Structures are given as C-alpha cells and as structure tokens.
Queue: 4 jobs
Job 1
Amino acid sequence: MSISAWERVDAALIIGSDLRREIPLLHLRLRKAGLRGARLSVINPLDGDFRFPVQVGQLAKDLAEELAAVALAVSELSGNAIPAALGAAVQGVEPQQAHVQIAEDLMRGAQTGLLVGQLALDQAGAGTLLALAAFVAEATGSALGTLPVGGNTAGAWLCGIVPHRGMGGTPLMAPGRSASEMLSGKLQGFLLLGAEPEREAANPAAAVAALSGAAFGVALTPYLTETLKATAHVLLPIGTFSETAGSLISRDGQWLSFAGCAEPIGEARPGWKVLRVLGNSLGVAGFDYADCSEVTEAARLAIGPVQATPGQWHRQGSWERPMLPALQRLGPLALYGTDALVRRAPSLQDSPEGSRARQLRIHPTDAARAGLKAGEPVQVNQAGARVVASWTADATLAPGCVWFPAGLLDLPVGGARFGALEIMPAAAN
C-alpha cells in the first residue's frame, strides 16, 4: 500500500514505531484517516506522541506477546487456524478485550493495514513479530507494511546489499555473512563505505572490537573519526551524500534521482568513483562506468519492475517469542543521528528535538528500584561497556525499558542498541 493510500484506511495497527520521527509523512496520512474516523491502534514500548486518535493503545515491552494475543483473537474471529510455524509463538498467551477489539477493527474495515516500525524491526525477535503480523494481515485481508530505517533501505535491498539476496531481491544459493555475523567474530579484513560503526552499528562496542582485531581495514569516509583512525589501515576521503549524484528507491518503490548540490572538498571524490577505481585496479568486471547515471540505469535494468508481494514468514520455519531481559535498552538512531552529516549539524543538534535525544529516559518505577535520584547522573552497564549520562523520568515508557538513542556524537557509546542493560547511580561505581 502506498503512503498516500494510508489516509483512506478504515482501521490500522501500528507495532513498535515512533512514527512521527520515523516517517512523518506517513504519520500525517494516518492523522487524516484518524480524524476521518478510522480505528487506529498501537502496540508500542513507548507513547509515540501520536497526533491522531488512538482507539486501543497497548504500552508493553513484550511486543511479540501482545501481537500473539491479537493473532489468537483474529484466529478465533476469522476461523483461520494459527499456522504450525507460529505454534510456539502463541503458546501460553491469553487474548484480552483490547486484543479482541483490535482484531474486530481490522476485520470490519474495508481497507485496513498493519505497520511494523523500527522499534520492532531492530530488536531480538523481529522475525517472530513479522511472522505474527503476516498471519494477522492475511487473516484479516489487511495490507502489511514495514517502515524502513534510513533513506534508501529499499534501494539497498533491491541492489543486493544483504547476504542472502542478489539484484532485484533474487535468492542466493550461497548466502554470505550478515553484518551481525561479521562484527561478532574475527575479521581478516574489512571495507567500510561512509559508515561510523561506533555510532550506527547494532552493537557499537562489539563492532569496534571486531574492527580493531582485523588484520587489514579500509574506510571510505567523509569524516575522520578517532575510531576510524584506530581501526582502519587506509583512509580514503569521499564526499557526503549531498556531494554526489545518485538515486533512492522509496518505500513505495519509486525511483528518485538527484544531483550533488556541492563539490566534494579537497581530494575527496564521490564514493561510487572511489569504488570504481578500486574495482578497475583489481580487474573486476562491471566497474567501467563513466557517469553515475550509468550506474543507476544498470541497477534499474537488473532490478526490473518493483512489485510488493505479501510476506509468507508465518508459513515457514518455527517462530518463538524472545526471552526479554529485566531491563531492555530502546536504542534507535536519534532523529538527528541517522547519518554523518546531520549528526554534525549544530543547528539540528541544538534544536528541541536534538536536545531531547541526549537524555536517557527511564520509567519512574525502574528509576526508583535502581535508587536513582533526580538531577544526578546514571551509570549504564551493558556487556562490558560503561556509560555515565544524564537522565529523566518518563512514565510514557513501558516499565522495563530505557530510552537510550544512538547515533549522536556527544552521547556515550554503549553496547547493543536493543540489548539488556543495568542502571545504577553513577556514584555507586
């Protein structure tokens, strides 16, 4: 379903999303639907500051358990049996009236949909959430959409920048290693393209440790950071995304081409040109492009028409609900921490939204249990990483969750962005 079509839904369920900050335009479309009378429901680990009427709002840390309850309610109302692959995921779950209400809204509407956001897709058990959502969508006749993280996630997938897919999303017979697998083991070598792993990786501490142990590393980067100087053996300057031409593929499958708005500084070159020279030097085929538009056209021909197909995760494998820690970090990339350029823009970092992202937010119950005092810093321990930061109490979080965003330059680096952590008064160390 296109973004514009969401304003015409009769009912929708949003799962794990800070939608106003992930895709503001989609939030606006749903606001228009809600003001028209659409039944909009949310399952979230935080109050997402939504600007539309929420009919059913489930504030919970365990998103999989909540969605499993909705799936059971849908199964009961629709007569569609829970697939065998989801048997373990729904085991021991009892739907409540709120879950039944969500199921009824999705089944009654003529045009309905489910949206799975970053707070769901980035955490452990994301596959289970997608499988449950796919069953609910199929059984209720709803559209299922996932909210991409970053500006060109769809383009990266369609160009094969994932270990198990080739151009156009075709399955690979011999999949490669995922980023998690590469950064959790021993690396012989690495090549980074415009990446700042200490700010962007799913587990920054583990990523830096893996890169530090590599025998040889190359980083193509517009900015020189202490981490890159310590881990890479060769640094090649490239321009930022605004200093090169290129193309994006939107969430709706539309190609959006653009030109660079400035020339790269000094000896920096657009990233694609540096890769072309490296490919030519190594004698690799397919690196003979003279202009960025040729790269775009080659990709367009290889990908072909972009068509969305319903996910069938609920028909394959065996899905289980994840075991969640007593205290879980919610660590999405901050709104102004998504890339190297915006995280260095003082005007954005000094804005109310930029300032908001710099404070850890902790549910009052969890803060009291840890002995934290207002105005005093908190120490966060996470998989060997120790961080001291300011914090504020926030009752709009689900108990057991700590809002600790990532991607900002002056925010301490921690461990897994959606992993377990411990909190204590900073003086207690």
Job 2
Amino acid sequence: MISGEPEDGSTQGEGVGFKAHIFSESVLGFAGASFLLKVGALIFQTFIGVALARALGATGLGSYSLSMAIINLLSLPLALGFPTLSLRELSAYLAKDNKAFALGYIHRSGQIVFLTSSLVALLCVSLLLLFREHVSSLHTSILAFFLLPLIVSNSLRTGILRAFGRVIYAQIPDSLVRPLCFLVMLPLLLLKPTPDHALFLQIVATAIAFFIGKILLYRTSREVLGSCVPEYKSLYWLKLAFPFVFIGVMQMVNRQIDFVMLGIMKNHDDVGVYKAVSQGAMLVSFVLASINMVQGPRIAAYWAINDKQSLQRLVTKNARIAAFGTIMIAVVIMVMAPHLLETIFGQGFVRGAMALRILCFGQIINGLSGSVGALLNMTGHEKYTLRGMGMASMTNILLNLLLVPQYGIIGAAVASSISNSLWNILMIFFVNKVTRIRPTFTGLF
C-alpha cells in the first residue's frame, strides 16, 4: 500500500511511498523467481509442442502453428506500445504518488488496446468470410482471431503489473496458468485431433489466463491506488506509446531474420536445427531478461524523482549479477553443447553445437552490457533504442546474406552474434551520452 502522501509537494516526499512499495524485496529474489518461471514456461511449451505434433501430425500442426504465428505477429503492433510504456509512465505516476493519472492510464490503455484489437479481429474475420473460396483452413483461421484481443490485453496487463512491482503476478497468467490449462485439456484433443479443436482449447486456456490476470490486476490496483477518481491524457499517452510499436517490430524482425534467410537460402532441415539451437541460447538470455522484468519500473521510478545516485547503484549491482549469471550458464551450455543437443533433441541436431556456442558468446556480450535497452526506454530516450535497433537489424540482414549461403547455420549464428554485439555497443554509447548512467558491470562505462 502506498502511504505517506506529500504535504509540501517535494519530489523526495512524493517518491517515498512508492519506493517503500516497489523496493520492499531484493531484485535478486524477484529475478530468480522470474528466471524459474521463464524456464518452466519453456518446458511447458516444449511438452505442448511434442503433444500437438503427435496428435495433429505434420499437416495439422502446420495449420495450427501458422494460425498462431499470424496472431502473435499481429498482437505486437496492436498492443500499440502500451505494455512497454506502462513500465515508464505508470511507474513515474506511482513514484510521484499521482494516483488519479495512474488509474486513468490503466483504464484508458486497456480500453484502447482491447477495442483496437477486437475491431481488427472482426475486420479480418469479415475478409476471410468474403474471400472464403480462396482460403484454406477457413474455420481454423477464423477461430484464431478470437485469440487476438485476449493476447493483446494479456500483454498490456503484464506491463502494468510489472510497473506496480508485481513481477511474479505479471508472469503467472501467461507463463503458468495458460500452458497448464492447455496441458490439462490436451486429452480432450485426442477425442477430435484437429487444428480447429486445438485452437478452441487454446482460446479456453487463454481466456482463463485473461480472467485470472484481470483479478490480479484489480486486487493490485485497489491495494495501491484505492478508490481515487481517474484522470485521463489519452492523446498524450498514444503519442508516447507510438515509438514502442516500431521498436517491438524491429526486435521481432531481428529475432526472425535468421530463420527466414535459412529457409530461403538453405533448407528446412537447417531451420529446424537452428530453431533448437536458438532455444538453447535463449536460456542464457533469461538471466538479463529476468533482471529487466524487475528492474525496468525501478529505473523509471528513480528517473522520475531525479535520484540518479540510487539509479546508478541499482544498475551497477544488477549488471554484475547479470554478468555473473550469464557467463556461468553460457559456459555450461558451450562445454556441453553436443551432449545437450543430442539428449534433448536427438542425434540429428548435434551438428548445431558450434552454432549454439557462437550464439552463447553473443549472449555473453549481451549480459556484460547490462540493461541498456531498459535504461533508454524507461528514461524517455526510446528514439536512441530505435536507432540502435535499426542499425543492428540492417547489419544482421547483410551478414546473413553474405554468410548463410556458404556457412549455413554457422553463418546465421555469426550474423546474429555480431549484430547483437553491435547493438549493445551502440546502446552503451547512447546510455552514457543521454543519461550519464554507466550501464555495464564495471560501473565505469
């Protein structure tokens, strides 16, 4: 509960209540729990993928996966940048004890993204029905669009709960509830093993996660904000959120370009091996990602009350934790790469060991650089994030064009690691330039 409303309007007094609330637990404890949730979600998704492959077969799984990929692709721009903006703006409102605008932001952002995604889903369904004779798997495609408003709203709720400092609450619905519900209902898929049935079960699981998330958000907002009257700045919030749409799209392009290039210039077997390798490297990235789940709102809060000394201490401490954890996990995976790939994915994936080591090296650079993206985005300098992302994406595309035809998955891994390292170097420079905060584990630059 936020307490201690300021009597003199001083910046320090305004931040006391929120600091006591959001900094009540250590970042390390929250980050550790977040890391376990991310690993658990990855394990759940692996089980679900295997079960769906066996139940639906290659063709059915392809239809289901394509529909889910389209919905996930659309959900990113349709969130309109509000999930990321929530971390900065809502944290700032709470740090200044501005409960009216905080509650207004929660209400208005939820209304905007749900209405926008629902209208787009309705439009897409109408187009599918209009051109039904040209659409394969019509029922599957229509069912998939029922997921769109739920997924977009869940993404926004995650950002809002993170801004409140409820990092575990933020992840439980999508990382735990949704996959668990789907796994529990999987036996029903055996009664009618079709992509339509699988998507229906996914809709039910996502809806359950949506309503549980709503309950968690309602309880949290009532606890922290009470029953204040909301105030709104709708156009202002839309303007602030817009750059984050482009950042999200660029991030998605940077993550997927390797697979696209391999599919075009090599073969599907290489894409499959690289997919497995990327999942292994993802474990290394979970360390910094877990810390950023907790640290993002705190960066915004300290910046809002102009407490740069505390912000520097927070960033340096957590950068050292991220660097240590990243190196430890990366070294284990790099040493055991062939054995891990054979044990988890099979003998045919062992040839991806070198690519896995290269990607892990790139993730080490990422871990050593610290929370550079969060520092820029949470302090109102997201245009520099967009510049760095644009340069890194162009580098990734060019290197893939040069290296993939001759070196295959090794070339894709090299391209990804070099572009990722370039992005981090640029971001360190930008952070030092515009915030005067030193983001790396050394605390020197």
Job 3
Amino acid sequence: MSQMPQLSACPSCEEPLESGDRYCGACGYDLSAVPAPPDDNPAVTMNGTAPRPPSAVASVDWPVAPEADSSDTPAPVVLPADIDGRESGGSDRPGVRFDRPAQPSAPPSAEPDEYPLAAPLPPEAAPADPRAAGFSTPGGGMKVCVACRAGQVDRDGYCENCGHAQPRERDHMEQELSAVAAVSDRGLRHHRNEDAFTVSSTALPDGSSAVVAIVCDGVSSATRPDEASLAASRAANESLLGALPRGTHPQQAMHEAILAASEAVNSLADRTAPAHEHQPHVNAPACTLVGAIVTPSLLIVGWVGDSRAYWVPVDRTSPPARLTEDDSWAAQMVAAGLMNEAEAYADERAHAITGWLGADAYELEPHTASFKPDRPGVVVVCTDGLWNYAEAAEEMAEVIPPDAADRPLHSAQVLVGHALDGGGHDNVTVAVLPFPAPPQGAGSA
C-alpha cells in the first residue's frame, strides 16, 4: 500500500494538519488523494503537458515542510525562488520551468497564485486540406480543379484529387458574326451539352453574301452523342463553305452538306467491337441536324430528325411559320391522320425520332426546302430543347424580341433563357439569322 504524503496544511483550505490525518478536519478534504511530490524533477508544468523524463542532471533536494508548532501557526510557505532549479534553457539559476521561454520572476512578496504566467503561444497555422495531401501544384499546361484548387483535371474532366466534375467548354457557348449569332447551353438537368452548332458566312460567285447556321442535337440514347453532333455540324459547315463559292445552288449545297455530315457521324461508329460482330453499328453515335442558308433573296433550310427552323417576320402583324417537319413518331401519327397534333405530342412516344444521322440509321432521307420571303424577318434554327417551350410558330414569335433582326445574339440569349426558365430539361441550342443577308459578304468564319 502506498504511503500518504506528509502535509502540514490542507491543500484545499490550508487548515493546519496533524501527523497521520487522513482527512482535513475543517473541510473534509481527502488527503489520500494528494499525490506525493516528485523526487526526480522539479519542473512545474503549466501548459497541461506531462513532465519531461528524468535527465542526467542531479535531482533537486526538496526541503521537508516543517510541522505546525503548538501555537497553530501555519508553516512558512516555501517559494519557488527559494529552491535551486534548472531552467529548460540549461542555465543554473533559481526559477520555475514552464517549458516555454523564461518569464520575469515574481516579486518576493507575491503569493503563489500571483506568479505571472507565460505568454500564450502564437496561433497555429490552419491545418492543410487533407484532400490535397500528396498533390503538388500542377505544372504549366495542366488544368487545376475549380473546387479544391489543388488537384489536376484528368482527360475525362474530373479532378484527380477531390473528384469534382469540371465545367466543360461546351456547357455554354456563344458566337456572333455580323449577320448571325448562336447560343448553346447544357440546360439544368443534363450532365453535359450534347448539342453543337456552327455559324459562318461566305461570298457567292456574284459577290453577294451567304450566311450559314448548322445546329445538331446528339441522340442521348446513343454512344458519344456529343461527338456525333460536333462532327456533323463541322462537316456540314465545311461542305457548304466549299460548295457555295463555286456556284452550287444553295438547296443542292444543303443536300450535299447533310450527306457529308452523315458520313462524318458514320465514321465514329466502332466497327471492331466483338460483341456486335454481326451488327457493327448497333447503338452507334447519332444526332439530328437542321441548317439554314440566307442569301439576299433566298432562304434554304435542310434537316434530318426533330430539330426545327422557324420564320418570324419583322412585322409581327404578318404570320410566323414553321419551316420544317419532324422526323418523329408524333409527326408520323399526325401525317397518317391517326391523331391530331395536340394528342400526338402529348404522348410519351412523341419525341421518338424516325430519322437521324448515324451508322445505324435505317435510311438517310435529307430534307431540304427553298423559300423566297417577300419581307424581312429572322430565321430561328433550334433543337427541341428550345421548341419544347415554344412549340407553335406563334409561341416562338411571342418569345423572340422585336429587334431580333438587329440584335441576333441578344435574341438567341433571350430564347435560351426562356427554355431555362421553363425548366431546362434538355440541352438548348438556337441560331438566329436575319433575312435578307447583308449585301456584302464578310468572308468565312
């Protein structure tokens, strides 16, 4: 059994004690709970840390507290300054070790509770983000995550550190030329933008201008629809820019452009997959396409799928019109007289397309049409991400601003905003082309 330390006064109330007392007679303090004074280290720790282990330095000879005399006068208090000790710095001088820089000693008349404490430690630096552990700042040319600002972005667009998906370049795109503008947005529900567009202008052989807009919508149920729409829009645009300056009639040029777009999408199909040995084009990349060419006197549209073109006159007292017919289940039901338009487009099968660009398309049937408007207006070329919220030509005319012919980019932005305000359930892409085209071509872009 351990021996109780011999105390001259109660540690709680300082009442004098008799030898052998186990409890203070004044306050009832349990004297057996008082730890014995250390005999190997004179340090007094004030910061909550454990004392250092015994060193080779000679231990301090603690004086024995004298017993109280018969006059009940408390025993004299032994001050730290009365004891030879060693500072943590190693110098031999009286003092108290706080395991911190030395502080001025207390005046001789100070009571133990009045000794000055050491200055607080400086605030610790904020801990490093554990997610960034092991990651150095990416070198030149590497993209840095917009979320954690530490990890590198892999080729799939995700941070290698925190896994956050990075904004893609195609999430929102805008382009404006002198006589055409287009805007594309990912929408509010899709994780990527599978639409694509191109806008350009060129000169016809007679020196007049031709303005071109191509809009493509990737088929989400197919593989790599974003690649399909991008390839189709670029191929169609390049075909038109090559054919129109040579004097090819714009309607024929549009037909050829759709065929070129189809070939570009077909080339994306994976014909090496062993699982589809007998059906190499199953679920191949696919997209729809709609395009418009505006000249000083002609308006040409071409399409495959359910992307649309609308005509909206500058004079809003004149009726607007839809210039395309969908390659869709709903359109077939209406054409066959089996349903009216409202019934057909209310059906869950309404947007099932019956024509598209892709290696697994049943049969490619490019549609083209030529118009000679007798008044100025604008052509709206868009995906179903827009016309779902303004299906009828009259609804489209109500949404597009009255100054659309003068401000095509602003009008395209307004139309995309209308779709987003309506819910943004799909990618949204729209191009606005004023008619007639300006008299002088600005060159291709």
Job 4
Amino acid sequence: MPGSQFYEDYTGWNLPAGYAMYQGTSMASPQAVGASVLLLSAAKRQGTDLTPVKLRTALTSTAAHIKGVQGDEEGAGLIDIPAAWKAVEKGTSAHDYTVKAPVDTVLDQQLKTLGFGTGVYDREGGLKDGQKKTHEVTVTRTSGPDGPVLHELRLKNNKADTFAILGSRTVELPLNKPVAVRIQAGSASAGVKSARLEVDAPTTEGVDRQILTTVVVSAPAEHTYVVSGSVQRNSANTYFVTVPEGAKTLEVRLGGLEDGSWTTAGALQPSGLPADDDDPTTPDVATYPNPQAGVWEIVVESYYATQPLDNRYALDVAVYGASFAPDPVTVPEGKAGTPAAVSRTATNGDAAVDGTLKGGTPGSSKTARPTIADGATQTTTVEVPEGATSLVVAIGSPEDNAADLDLMVYDAKGGLVGVDADADAEESVSVADPAAGTYTIEVLG
C-alpha cells in the first residue's frame, strides 16, 4: 500500500517502494472484501447464484488455521480463495440458526437480550486458573426440513483443551425449537482463552454455524502483578488483572527495554474503553486514579517502527488503596496564618506505599450524586475566591457503565477554560491559578 518511507530513520531497515506496515481491521477488511469480490466475479462469470449466506459459508468453512493464534484473534481463520471457490462449485450451503449464549461483562445489560449474545464471552465471571465453569449455549435451527436434523458438534482451535463439550458430540435440531449445548471452560493459566464451536449438519456443503466461545482467566491484582516477556514488532501482548473494589490507584510500570525499542504499556477499562493516564509525559509509568472495579486489560504494544524485532520488557502492575479518615477533614473555623490541628487515620489495604505525608493549603469542596437524562444538560455554579491556586472538577462512577458524559467548565466571563469529552463518563478538568469569580460547570448527558 502507498506510504512514505520513513522506517529507516527509526529502525535502520526499510520496505520496498509503495509499501508500509500496519495492522488491525483497517487491513483485514480490504483483504476480506477483495476475496469476496473475486469469488462474486467468478460466480457471475459462471452463472452461479452466490448469495450472501453461501459466500460467507464458503469463506468461513474453508479458512485455514493461523498457527499460534487463538479463535478470538483469527475468527474462522486465514482466507483460502481457491478452496472457497471449490466449495462454491460443489454447491456450498448452510441452514440458518439463532444462538443465545451467555455474556458476562460490565456492559452485558446493554445487549438486546440482557446478558446474552451470539457467542460465549465471560470476562467478569470470576474464572480463576485451575477452576472450571460451565456455559449453556442455546441453538435454534430456523430453516431447512420440518423434522429433526442431525448435527455434529466440534471444538476447533481449542488450545490446551481449554473447552470441552459436555454430553454427546451429536445433537438433533428440530425446526424452530431451541436446544441447549453445554460447554465447560477450564484453564491452568491466566489470560484470554477461546475456541470455535462448530454446529454442522453433514447433509450440507460447508460448516453450518460457527460460535465463538471466549473466557478471560484473570490474575487477581490484590497488591501487585509482575511479569516479564517479549513482544514482536508491530504486535501486542495482553494481560488481564482484577482490580478490587475500593482501589484508589492502578499503576502500570514498563521497564527492561533495550535501546531503540519503541514499546509502551497502557490499560483498557472493564468496559473495553482506553483509560486516560493522569500524566502522559511519563511513558514508563501510567497511573489511573480511582479505577473501576473489575477486569482490566493491560496492553504491551511494540510499534512498527521499533528497531528490535523482539522487544523484551518487564511489566509491574500495582493496586494502591491507601485511604484517610475522615476524608475530607472539615475545619469549622480558621484564621489566616494560624495553624489548625486536625487528626486523620491512614489505612492501607493494598500494595505497600513508600513515601511521606505532606500537608497542603486548606480548600473547600462540594460532592453530589445527581442524575441526568440522556441528551440533557445540567448546570452548576461555584464561587472561586481571590488567591485560589486550583479548581478541580470531576465526574464519574455512573450507575450505568455504558454512560457517555461530557464535562465543560466556563470562567466568570463565559470563556471555556476546560473540557473533557471522551467516550465514557470519567471526566475531569483542572484549572491552575483560576481568576476569582463565578464559574459555570456543565455536564452533558
């Protein structure tokens, strides 16, 4: 594909003219479209009626497994156009089905059928290494003969036999009548585990239905989680850690990198959205205050322009939970220049903290837990006195984990002094040395 040749400036190696290195769905989609166009044009030339269902069946039934890649990463596999065309020539066909499979994430209540989707995805179910858990998948055949049709059940790309079919490997599916298939998951190690469940009628040419089954075996980060590894250029490694309720800070440290290694670490919230590092200027340390409880995904990614092919690293994830009571401390009355005695109790329930306690300038705060309708705007005002050194406004911890709220702060003259409007509800604005006056705070639902 077209691209400027800047790799040599970073890596010492280059690509042929007209080529660049990228990854992801932006690259996979045009490959799949190109393969489909080739098959459709050949079918048109031969006078073959290649419907969308037949095209999909031909592509997915003949795709080849990619060595070392799991089902959640490869889908049906690597497209094989010659094999797919042979399937078309043989009259590829498949019945239609509906699938109801359990989904356990912080967003599962947003699904059309609450807690259920078209494949198994258990992220927040608490599966630990060495344990086993059973998931019930309901399959309904919605086309084909009126009577029962025998189907074979197979697990494909089932690395380390993580999944097992409980009961018979064959099942009869009547027309429009749901039938339950039980799948058991169990793993001896943490991480994402996946496989494809194939539901296939031998009387059709092609695999009738492929159902993705995925579980996340999380490592509990009650205090710290430490791991070392290596990630190849233009690739990423992921780790899943469970952050407990009440955690104050999640810290991700990346070290052990060689010279010329362009490798970074970041975090995805339990909702799957990227979390904002509170200080992007420190690339080796990412800190996430007040992290949402649940399973976080830590991503170690090496960029396409990194010099080494294999990038070694050391990853250290820590959960801090030091708290102070009371918080905040209220001083009934104070005089300028006169110290006020206060008493607080510090409690640490997570990773050890090596530091010192330091006092600061007294301030005032307001905390509220209002509600807001979708599309509505809520306005609040706050008086900032002369001499104030900072104004901090923050919203978060919504009742609906899928909520997307935006935060805007205006000064006394109506000028916008801060905005945070990313794709979640955890927003904050900090204004240093604010001018005195009445500030307006807008929350957009």
